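Researcher: Predict the fold of ATP synthase subunit b, chloroplastic.
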Amino acid sequence: MKNLTDSFVSLGHWPSAGSFGFNTDILATNPINLSVVLGVLIFFGKGVLNDLLDNRKQRILNTIRNSEELRGGAIEQLEKARARLRKVEVEAEQFRVNGYSEIEQEKLNLINSTYKTLEQLENYKNETIHFEQQRAITQVRQRIFQQALQGALGTLNSCLNNELHLRTISANIGMFGAMNERNN
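Model: Structure tokens for ATP synthase subunit b, chloroplastic follow.
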């Protein structure tokens, strides 16, 4: 433990230009420390991440089902509109002499209105799905970052003495504040 603490303390001290050597202390090298921290994060965060993704998947599937139900309602409206169209066509044949052009105009308006409604419902479904996906991605990113930070702080808490602990926390808070300023 003393070697580990000494390696953190010696980070601020550079050896003189005349000396050269290799650090043979495996615990003081960065790749080992990073692999341990990443291993702990993956081990403890995998289950939570899977649960989050499963919950998100269910929400997205529910949204898709709701959109499909809306689509079904739109199809029903389309069928009703087609039935009305057939009725209008029968009336058009009966009243062709009196107002053929007016009935044709009504038919076109009805068709256009129905297609616009269908397009609006399809656009709404696509926007809802896109919005839910973006929100899910944002939530997962935030949770992963929070869990990684908590895991790293937990690992550091168990390895550092009070003075080094306070210095590390101050540095992390500064980095976190800078990241928040960039994101906002």
